[in-house]
Design goal:
This protein is an alpha/beta fold. The protein has 16 helices and 11 strands.
């Protein structure tokens, strides 16, 4: 039998449908892979072996009965621990929710179940999705499968590491300022932030409600498209959900042709501040797109230089509001409830013990920005900048079909290197944040390796509800680069000497 962990999600789904591999065999093979390599990586916080194998057995029964299932039926998936799953521990990477078992499924989880996807377990993340390295997890850092001394990106480093280390062919992440795309870039995987509101946020533990967006992670553009199609669509239980058709992302991923497309290079997202190897791989991608028949246009988005500052006022402000619910009173961790402390003291003790340093830092920034006398000067001004950034995108997309840039200014940095320098950590999201502020769609795909053998990401950005353009361009670049490399970039990866 072919090793299921070496197959793409599309290949594995086809093999399960044909009866060549059972869903139970696929799940067991991925658990064996997790047992072999996750000790060195720490991608998972919880494994739901019993639940996953029961899901897989149900798929096998349905296949045996001749039922026609979706293309991902029986395919294993790793779920970021910020989406609730009924009865399965969900922590958002925080001590504040340690041991909590939600009473319901997030809409994304419901749709995964409907698609027949088998959820292996919950992946590690920066606490409440606040971070760019997965070092801010209360349960220890995740390590990059390419070099375990390096970070796997954040906040969804666990999901990206699970995919790139062949522990799962699919994963779900969430992207508030780059938390799907940046981990994808530094682990050599594919990650997509869909248009804001096109994938339901119901059951996603909120960090910044106007920015948070769940999305797919995988090893290929087609696999990512298949997962995107499975989770997207209107949800009447989410007030921010868009009631519009899902773009034809799978068809686009199968149409790897950019001839006649206009591709814009964002001047503000290249050059100074970008690692030379990152810039070199980007320049090669630009030349490749030109060779494939795309027209290359330089685009000026002057307000992008203010995106980082605006984001770090808007996101902490919304976090300050959203995380107020974790007060030691209603649910979550409670400290000091022994009859000797006042309610205010219990709240203070619970939040001091439950929140990590980065979460506390952002709550304080956000509370200050929202406080009387400062709201207009900080939060209000940041929202005005957000509008200007959205207008920059609108003007750019009036001229081009997609925009491109490096996904992140550097490749994976060393664990611990930036923990004492928050601004250096925040700059990892320099190129990804504008798309979150505007709400449009964006993707990261592998663009090659740097001189240390670490992956570099290419970011592709498309207008809102034009997510299919990402997949068309991404598939064309992926096909051409795989031909140039003699196979996918991840084929070059070994973890602890094992594939």
């Amino acid at each position: 039998m072919t090793d299921p962990t070496t197959l793409t999600a599309a290949e594995l789904g086809g093999a399960i449908a044909a009866g060549d591999i059972t869903a139970v065999e696929a799940a067991e093979a991925h658990y064996a892979r997790i047992d072999a390599v996750d000790g060195a990586i720490h991608a998972f916080l919880h494994l739901d072996r019993e639940g996953a194998l029961a899901q897989a057995a149900d798929i096998d029964r349905r296949v045996a009965a001749g039922e026609r299932l979706g293309p991902l039926a029986g395919v294993p998936l790793a779920l970021k621990d910020v989406l609730v799953q009924r009865g399965v521990p969900t922590t958002a990477g925080s001590r504040m929710l340690e041991g909590w078992r939600p009473p319901y499924d997030a809409t994304v989880v419901t749709r995964l179940r409907e698609a027949g996807v088998v959820i292996l377990g919950k992946t590690n993340m920066d606490e409440f999705a606040m971070g760019s390295s997965t070092e801010h997890s209360a349960y220890g850092p995740t390590r990059n499968p390419w070099n375990t001394d390096r970070i796997p990106g954040g906040s969804g480093g666990g999901s990206a590491a699970a995919v790139s280390a062949f522990m799962a062919p699919l994963a779900i992440g969430t992207d508030t300022g780059g938390s799907i795309r940046q981990p994808a870039a530094v682990t050599g995987s594919v990650g997509v932030k869909p248009t804001y509101g096109s994938v339901s946020r119901r059951g996603l533990i909120a960090f910044s409600s106007s920015l948070d967006q769940a999305g797919p992670c995988a090893r290929t553009v087609l696999d990512t498209a298949l997962l995107h199609e499975a989770i997207a669509g209107h949800d009447p239980l989410d007030s921010t959900s868009i009631d519009a058709p899902v773009p034809a992302v799978v068809a686009a991923a199968r149409h790897a042709d950019v001839r006649g497309m206009r591709v814009g290079i964002v001047r503000e997202l290249t050059g100074e501040g970008y690692q030379p190897d990152v810039q070199a791989r980007f320049d090669e991608s630009v030349e490749l797109l030109r060779e494939l028949g795309a027209e290359i246009v330089e685009v000026h988005c002057p307000n992008f230089v203010h995106a980082l500052a605006a984001y770090y006022l808007i996101a902490p402000s919304e976090a300050s509001s959203n995380l107020a619910r974790f007060d030691g009173m209603r649910y979550g961790l409670r400290v000091g409830d022994d009859g000797t402390h006042s309610a205010e003291e219990v709240m203070a003790l619970s939040r001091a013990a439950g929140f990590g340093a980065e979460v506390k830092r952002r709550i304080m920034i956000g509370t200050y920005a929202l406080s009387s006398g400062y709201y207009d000067a900080y939060y209000g001004q940041a929202q005005k900048v957000r509008t200007l950034i959205t207008r920059d995108f609108e003007a750019a997309f009036a001229r081009v079909d997609v925009l491109i840039s490096p996904t992140t200014p550097t490749t994976a940095f060393r664990i611990g290197e930036r923990l004492d320098d928050p601004m250096a950590m925040y700059r990892a999201d320099l190129a990804t944040i504008p798309s979150n502020l505007a709400g449009n769609s964006a993707m990261s795909i592998p663009a090659g390796l740097d001189s240390d053998g670490l992956p570099v990401g290419l970011q592709i950005m498309a207008p809102a509800l034009a997510d299919d353009r990402l997949y068309r361009v991404g598939a064309a670049v992926e096909t051409a680069l795989n031909a140039r490399w003699g196979g996918p970039l991840l084929d070059k990866l070994t973890v602890g000497g094992t594939r």
